[in-house]
Amino acid sequence: MEYYAFIHFSINTYTDMAWGFGNEDPVLFNPTKLDCRQWARICKEAGMKGIIFTAKHHSGFCLWPSKYTDYSVKNAPWKNGKGDVVREMADACKEYGLKFGVYLSPWDRNHPDYGKPEYITYFRNQLKELLTNYGDVFEVWFDGANGGSGYYGGANETRKIDAKTYYDWPNTYQLVRELQPKIVIWNDGGDRADLRWVGTEAGYVGETNWSLLNKTGDVPEQMLRHGLENGDTWVPGEVNTSIRPEWFYHEREDRKVKTLPQLMDTYYNSIGRNGTLLLNFPVMPNGLIHPKDEQAALSFAKAIKEAFAVNLARNTRTSASQIRGGKPEFGSMKAIDADKESYWATDDTTRKASLTLHFNAPTSFNRFLVQEPIWLGQRVRAFSVEALMDDNWKEIAKETTIGYKRILRFPMVKATQVRLTILDAKSNPLISNLEIYKTPIILTPPTITRDKSGDIRITPGDTESELYYTLNEAMPGPHSGKYTTPVKTSDGKVNVKAIAYNPYTKQSSIVSEEKFDVSRKDWKIISTDKQQAYQVLDGNPSTSWHQNKSQGMPADLIIDLGKLEKLVGFRYLPDQNWWADASIITHYQFEVSMDNKIWEMVNEGEFSNIKNNPFWQTKSFKPIQARYIKLRALKNTQEGSASGYAEIDIITP
Ligand code: FUL
After folding, report:
1. Counting atoms of ligand 1 from 1, which one is nearest the CA of 19?
2. Which residue intervals define the domain F5/8 type C in the entry (predicted)?
């Protein structure tokens, strides 16, 4: 299916939280403009093939009137308790010709029985409702997240379960398959199902990507990213990511909707790497998708359409180093015909072979798309692409796996022939499709940071663009300030807008925008004398600092702001080095002081879902004057031992 949507909408949409705790009052759920047809229309126009809807997220709040709980739309003011969002979603999917899927969180922070065997009966009853009453369901999503703590019917405690055994997945799967024989099951917490998580919510899978894993055994993160070459079970990777930093709607992220270059990267790093793309839309409290998200999804669809409009491989002459039994039905032209089911094949014992496309005239291109007929398995281990330019063969790519679809990006070349060489394969190589494109260049908007001294730094996404910026809210263009060296600013708040501009094509990127709070120039870290700690104030998200503390002890980071400030919140950016399994703070307290002696706690809580989605965490509190701040890490992703920070900042009114 390649591309389909996630929709996150629940009770925590009304409390501005990433995860509901399970005690949120259903009275909050009152979308005044809820329109599932708007969601379906946007997804359809965006070129998506289906929608997976959060029927129940971790809060336990049900978006359908489940017979088995009162914690649902039944007790919400919306439609006087007579509404059913799951029904409206399923109907809208049908109307727009989209497949319909459900997300049912196994972790339920509301249910009193969570953790006991009785809950499994409840969970299965809910599954039965969702998989019998709403027509065909193409995918069910069993999120593995479990933060332990919850309301649990008023117990307000932490409950630990063993995700491998507690849900009795084999019997749960059997029930699912009986009710919906054609469904695919997604599960990252328990037994291997039909699709695998790729180990990140950032929107990419490994360049080497096998659609295989073993039926049993642990799956380390590297394996989620790359699959397992000799795995015994077909478990393709599904790349799930949100169109904004978080999964649920937060007004503060209206400026953070993914840009076209970011979405194009996501496309090439998911669909272009043998994965499917599950792109999320958060729904606003009023029940609609924000116009900025709609616009981003539609311009993404338009850009994909434009990029892949003219297939330059069609109508070329083809030749191959070998053809299975010399038979035309396995000939090289089968890789460029319109029939996706026909394929070029080599003899059984062959492991290395090449296929060449001959253009009529020198042709410019910058994309190469290749597909294996995966109903016969994923075979290719290594391949290269070469171009014949001025009678010389030049290698333009050397890669590993292909699978269902692989798309390569490279700088424009002009050639008379293109040669795909399969260098190694698990069995004789087969290629069902080859396409070649010349796609328009999309300029990447620059990155804006503010370093500790308060200077603004603007970094381009490529080597050819010039950078222009404004500090006065005006739209930047080639007539505004040209960025050459870091820009000095006053110590106050700064709003920066910047663009990349190509002077040759006169093309501009979209505008990047950052709003910085007061400068951190005079800040001193006083809880440690390690100079490396200052990386949390350097404005650079890719540098980080870790402090070790003994097991179970909180880790404090204390900062002297240099002068009294009026504070209304703080921000924490965790270590961004995803694959290093960096330790990230999950539970915190934030304290302030006038004199570094008497401290007052102004805020405490959890950074929900921070492990999978390690973005800026913003917390607000009642205005207070202070000179010293203390971020106390109570719990980390790596239980107890270390705390990792990329950046810390304050929020002033
Ligand atoms: C995660 C959840 O914890 C998030 O809230 C979100 O639903 C995402 C798709 O999966 O694990």
Report:
1. 5
2. 301-439, 498-653
The contacts found for 522-525 with CB under 8 angstroms, 24 or more apart, are 522/561, 522/562, 522/563, 523/452, 523/559, 523/560, 523/561, 523/562, 524/559, 524/560, 524/562, 525/557, 525/558, 525/559, 525/560
CA-based R_g, the chain, Å: 27
Tokens read off for 551: 């097991």
Q: Could you count the other beta carbons within 10 Å of the beta carbon of residue 81?
A: 13
**Token pair 């359409």 is at which residue?**
305
Average pLDDT over residues 420-436: 98
Strands 237-242 and 196-197, sheet pairing: parallel
Domain locations along the chain: 3-307, 317-437, 447-516, 524-651
- Write out the CATH class of domain 524-651: mainly beta
Could you identify the atom of ligand 1 that is nearest to the CA of residue 188? 11
Name the CATH topology of 3-307: TIM Barrel (3.20.20)
73 phi and psi, to 5 degrees? -55, -20
Q: How much is the pLDDT for 441?
A: 84
Contacts of 389 (CB under 8 A, 6+ apart): 413, 414, 415, 416
Ligand 1 centroid to 46 CA: how many Å? 22
Mean pLDDT computed over 439-461:
92
Q: Which of 280, 283, 610, 613 to mutate to test the pocket of ligand 1 (most atoms within 8 A of CB)?
A: 613
Amino acid identity, position 246? E
Q: What are phi and psi of 177, to 5 degrees?
A: -70, -30
Between strands 3-8 and 276-282, the pairing is: parallel
Q: Pull the structure tokens for residue 429.
A: 């190589």
The CATH architecture that domain 447-516 belongs to is: Sandwich (2.60)
Q: Give the chain's length.
A: 653
DSSP state of 107: -
pLDDT digits (tens, 9 = 90+) for 451-502: 999 999 999 987 778 999 999 999 999 999 999 999 999 899 999 999 999 8
Instruction: Give the closest residue (by CA) to ligand 1 atom 8.
Output: 247
CA-nearest of 39, 49, 383 to 238 is: 49
For the CA of 54, the closest atom of ligand 1 is 7
Rounded to two decimals, what is the model's pTM? 0.86
The DSSP call for residue 479 is T
Q: For residue 236, which phi and psi values (nearest 5 degrees)? A: -60, 155
- Distance from residue 191's CA to the centre of ligand 1 (Å): 18
Q: Whose CA is nearest to atom 6 of ligand 1?
A: 247
**Shared fold status for 317-437 and 524-651:** yes
Q: How far is the CA of 44 from the centre of ligand 1 (A)?
A: 23
Residues 347-379 have pLDDT tens digits of 999 999 999 999 999 999 999 999 999 999 999
Taking the C-alpha atoms of residue 476 and residue 500, their distance in angstroms, rounded to an integer, is 10
140 within 8 A of 131, measured Cβ to Cβ:
yes
**Ligand 1, atom nearest to 141 Cα:** 9
Q: How far is the CA of 58 from the centre of ligand 1 (A)?
A: 9
Span 317-437: which CATH code? Answer: 2.60.120.260
**In which residue are the tokens 């109307």 written?**
95
Phi, psi dihedral angles at 149 (to 5 degrees): -80, 160
DSSP 387-404: EEETTEEEEEEEE---TT
Which residues have CB under 6 Å of ligand 1?
Answer: 18-19, 143, 145, 240, 247, 609, 612
| CA–CA separation, 514 and 155 (whole Å) | 42
Other CB atoms within 10 Å distance of the CB of residue 550: 8
